[in-house]
Amino acid sequence: MTTRRKKICPATVTQFVRHGRKTTRNLVVSVLITETFCMSPIAYAQTPDKPAVPATPAKAATPVKPAETKPEETNSKTGPVSKTDNKPVTSDAPVSSSGEPQSVTVQAERPSNRIDRQVYDVKSDVASTNGTATDALNNIPSVSVDPDGTVSLRGSTKVQILIDGKPSAMMQGDNRGASLNAMPSHDIESIEVINNPGAQFGNEGGGGPILNLVMRRNRQPGGFGVVNANAGSAGRYNSAVSGSYHEGLFGIQGGMNFRHDGRNSVGDAVRDRLDLSQHSTQESASAGLNNSSGVNAAITYNIDTKDTLGANFSYARRNNDQKSTDHYLNTGQINNDYVRSTQRGGESTNYSWGGRYDHKGDINGEIMRLDLRVSGSDNASSNAYSNVYSNVDASSPIIFTDVHSKQNNANNIKIVDFTGDYERPDEKGLLKMGYKIANNKSEFDTSYFNIDPISNTAILNPSRTNSYNLDEANIALYGSYQLRLNEKWGVLAGLRTEYTHIDIQQLTAHTEATNHYINYIPSFFASYKASDDTTLRFSYAHRIRRANANELNPFVVYRDELNYSSGNPKLKPAQTDSFELAYETRVIGLDMNIRGYYRTESDSILSRKIPISDTVVLTTLENGGGNHSSGVEFTLSGKLTPKLSINTSGNLLFIEQKILTATGQEIQRSASSLSLRGRFNYQLSEQDQLQISLNSQGKTLSGEGYRQPNSTANFSLRHTITPSLNLVLNVTDVFNSNKIDTIVDTDTLKEHNIRRYDGRLIYIGLSYRFGGNTSGGPGNNRQEIRRPPPPGQS
């Protein structure tokens, strides 16, 4: 009979080697909890933030093979744990003169599935050296990012994006798309998809499911760096340099990047007002490549074996210059033909800084964290407009003359986020509790001027001028407990209480409004270990989706000649209950996950189009009834052959949506869609790796209409010149097929919009790595263990 050797997580290896057989009961429990829920493989006696305890020099440690993600196995104390390919450390590990095993730290990849989230490693992607955060997100199952920067998850655009578990001003409102397109994907280590967020996550930034961008944190002793330089089609280029140095009590890392890029676009729109027999068309084109640059740094200092201080900052800047033309043709009760030219100049800056303090308690695994994050986004632009009319109908009741105008925009967002978190293991599980104090201030200032055709002076247009402030304060408390029921079952339950206070100042209209409320937000997770290769998971979370600053602003905003928009200060938060059942197993050597989900929403924030003139439609928002969505998501990944690996996924979605018609009538409609995604990596030779990515997005409901299916294909090739130098070729949208095609069909309005962006883009570049592990003295002969910062503990 063959004896099956039990596999263990890296955290267990590290603890066992460090403490030998003198392990206390609390130490065993804390390590087993880490294995059970795989939240982060922390070696409590010495984390990457702290130096190893000096030991008597001995022979070099035998390197331990990095872990490979596999389905969970069962720990006898705490339940399902992440299964790895690590072999147990044998007796040839280095031993100090006292007879205790010397410190050995294992380098490990984090598991792809945890009890409350899925983690996708993006740092090893072939195209990461010249891509953006948008490219990285588009490789994640059920995530889609439009060319205009709209992010959706399982067909819903109500997605919250965090950076290292914290809200950031750069990911708020209209600023999000441009920020994602400017952020280098090389700076991202992994992306966490949290469809049902637990109690530690707040509802700022819109609430809903969470995409957490975990930035790279290299903690190798000594110095290490990477330089990337890429050139693209149509004059595009980008470069980046990053590095780190860790020695003794100090560690510092940082980077700089620059990008000259953008997406030119063309569009066509056809609109028919059925109630007025008015027909309108719009042909548009926009062009402009913009510059973006950024710098970031982080430093850690280990005060002693229990206390660590950390600080970080980042700064990014980009311009928003663009030229566009729109050709309008109206026939019916109003007849005109004119071209509107727009020239925009502007600049955006994003910044963040913060500090952190970690303290380890007397019990192994007990830890307290204090974290302060401040982030801001300042955006300014100036637009010059010119309407030039042709083919003027002299018999028309309205005579149109050429019009010139300009518009200045300034908006600023500042977020202050202070959190405290505490973790304490006991004999049966792990207790977590914490608090958050946060403030989000948004200021918007729009000035619109008509240019006098005779004197050429600018005259303020009050009807299109707006000044608006929003101040949102949040105070939250949360608690959760992870519990091992038996050898097969593990559970995690939590409750979050949030108090929200909102002050709105519509300075232009001299009106103010205040709102405040308390929300109780429960969550629950369970996992069942059916076999060595099979795990079942269940999760439930209640979430709220608050309206953002733009959605609450009642002022009517001029978009273009056919479209105005306004918010609604009376919007209530939408309430969402989300359920998910997952089946995780292995089939013919491949990892397979199947997830069924159901989401119901009440007090939904619905879009409503209201005609306000013969040619202009106002889009506004109101609370409506409820929406329901359900579906099945699957992923299949792994190595088919020694040279070919696959990562495929699909999402079959069914959604029921209630909308408000122009007359205020609430109607319900439904739709089904199938989205597929595949990424295929093939090792052509020892030096060459090929990657092909295919993405097909199904039909989705959008506002009062729907969006047509869309498909893209990307191609990447990496050639190893030397062990430190790689050549990378990346082609996005190979078949130039990417577009946004939407249709609106109501009882009074029919509209068809198609917008195509620069599709086929080619980048070729070099990536050079330098430095690496250096001897750090006794006890430092170890490999790196990569651990993300605490994931959104509040």
Topology of this protein?
Elements lengths: L9 H10 L5 H13 L32 E6 L3 E5 L34 E4 L11 H5 L5 E3 L5 E3 L6 E4 L11 H8 L5 E7 L15 E6 L6 E11 L4 E11 L2 E12 L3 E9 L4 E10 L2 E13 L4 E13 L2 E10 L4 E25 L6 E24 L12 E23 L3 E23 L6 E3 L5 E19 L4 E18 L4 E19 L5 E11 L3 H4 L4 E4 L2 E3 L8 E14 L2 E13 L2 E7 L5 E7 L3 E13 L4 E17 L5 E18 L4 E10 L2 E3 L2 E3 L2 E13 L2 E8 L6 E7 L3 E9 L3 E11 L23
Parallel strand pairs: 6-8, 27-31
Antiparallel strand pairs: 1-2, 3-7, 4-5, 7-8, 9-10, 9-42, 10-11, 11-14, 12-13, 12-41, 13-16, 14-15, 15-17, 16-17, 17-18, 18-19, 19-20, 20-21, 20-22, 22-23, 23-24, 24-25, 25-28, 26-27, 28-29, 29-32, 30-31, 32-33, 33-34, 34-35, 35-38, 36-37, 37-40, 38-39, 39-42, 40-41
Plain-language structure description:
- It is a single chain.
- The two termini are 50 Å apart.
- The protein is globular and about 80 Å long.
- It has a 22-stranded antiparallel beta barrel.
- A hairpin with a 2-residue loop joins strand 26 (557-560) and strand 27 (563-565).
- The model is unreliable at 1-111 and 773-794 (pLDDT under 50).
- With 794 residues, the protein is mainly beta.
- Helices cover 5% and strands 57% of the residues.
Distance between the termini: 50 Å
Strand content: over 45%
| Shape field | globular
Largest sheet descriptor: 22 strands, antiparallel, barrel
Mean pLDDT, to the nearest integer, reads 80
Give the C-alpha Rg: 28 Å
**Quaternary structure state of the chains depicted:** single chain
Q: Report the uncertain regions.
A: 1-111, 773-794
* Count of runs of 4 or more consecutive helical residues: 5
Determine the fraction of residues in helical runs and give it as a percent range.
Answer: under 10%
Please tally the β strands and state the result: 42
Q: Give the class from helix and strand content and strand pairing.
A: mainly beta
